[in-house]
Amino acid sequence: MANSRQKTSNKKEEFRKKAKEALKFEAKFSAKSKHYEILRNLKTIIKFTNSKKILIFMPTYYEPNLLLLSKNLAKTHEFYIPFMQDVSFKMVKLRGPFFKSKFGIRETRYQNEFKGRVDLAVVPVIGVDGRGARIGHGKGYYDIFFDRLGYRPIIIFVEIKEMFTEEIVSQSHDIVCDFYLTPRKNYLIRGKYDRDFINLRRQCSGSWRRISNR
After folding, report:
1. If you write DSSP's letter for every residue of 89-149 in order, what string do you get?
2. Domain boundaries, the chain
3. CATH class as words, domain 1-211
4. Strand 185-189 relative to strand 207-211: parallel, antiparallel, unpaired?
5. Could you tell me which residues are beta bridge partners of residue 98?
6. Cα distances (angstroms) measured from residue 160 to each of 168, 171, 186, 191
7. HSE, side-chain direction, 13 A CA sphere, residue 198
8. Can you give the pTM of this predicted structure?
9. More confident residue, 105 or 134
10. Which has the closest alpha carbon to 90: 65, 59, 118?
């Protein structure tokens, strides 16, 4: 059992390293307009699921700029972002001015924690494995946050380049998405939205595929 867990951990690290390099290369040489397809599909899903309170994130240079989405929907939706705290983060309202944290990420100075429920969470990923689980930076902030949350909002992974592997490289604590959106290919986890799959595919751009949460 221990050897099996170690092999999975090693595969995960190898995949994370390759995916991160590919993402940074993509960000350096591709047009930012490619990210707009992600934002359009994300907006469609937000409307389709009637989500009003949404957790997003402050993007790095190799992540989709969700601030464009929040500006577009600011009058009708409420947006929250992570505020790093110890081994996880708390949710705070998206409100300027912003500063660069010790993690190199822009954060808001507005630090009053939002303790209500969000309908939908948009989460950055380095990659996604065959069961729809997140491969992140390896710090565990999101895993701990969702484990402590006490309920499960709709979870959407977003990424500027498709980094999906059929192989299972995740571990039991890694969070699993409902949707995984990239500029050209999109994924839906089988189950909750099976009946809506055809309608969603018609309304959204790019190719779509359903995968099982094994």
Report:
1. EEEEE--S-EEE-TTS-EEES--PBP-S--SEEEEE-SEE-TTSBEE-SSS-HHHHHHHHH
2. 1-211
3. alpha beta
4. parallel
5. 108
6. 21, 24, 11, 25
7. 1
8. 0.91
9. 134
10. 118
pLDDT at 1 over 60: no
CA distance 34 to 95: 26
Tens digits of residue pLDDT in 116-165:
999 999 999 999 999 999 999 988 899 999 999 999 999 999 999 999 99
Instruction: With cut-offs at 50, 70 and 90, classify the pLDDT of residue 3.
Output: low
Rg of the chain on CA atoms, in Å: 17
The distance of Cα 173 from the centroid of its chain, to the nearest Å, equals: 16
> Looking at 23-32, 72-81, 164-173, which range is the least confident one?
23-32
Q: Minimum mean pLDDT among 3-7, 42-46, 75-79, 169-173: which range?
A: 3-7
**Does residue 97 have a cis bond before it (omega within 30 degrees)?**
yes
Tell me how far apart the alpha carbons of residues 82 and 111 are, in angstroms, rounded to a whole number.
10
State how far the alpha carbon of 127 is from the alpha carbons of 97, 117, 133, 208, in Å: 31, 27, 9, 17
117 three-class SS: coil
Torsion sign across C-alpha atoms 177, 58, 103, 31: positive
Question: How far apart are alpha carbons 81 and 90 in whole angstroms?
Answer: 8
Instruction: Residue count of the chain, please give it.
Output: 214
The pLDDT value recorded for residue 206 is 92
User: HSE-up of 128 (CA within 13 Å, CB side)?
Assistant: 30
Closest to 55 measured CA to CA, from 117, 140, 3:
117
Q: How far is CA 181 from CA 73, 95, 122, 128, 193, in A?
A: 19, 25, 10, 11, 15
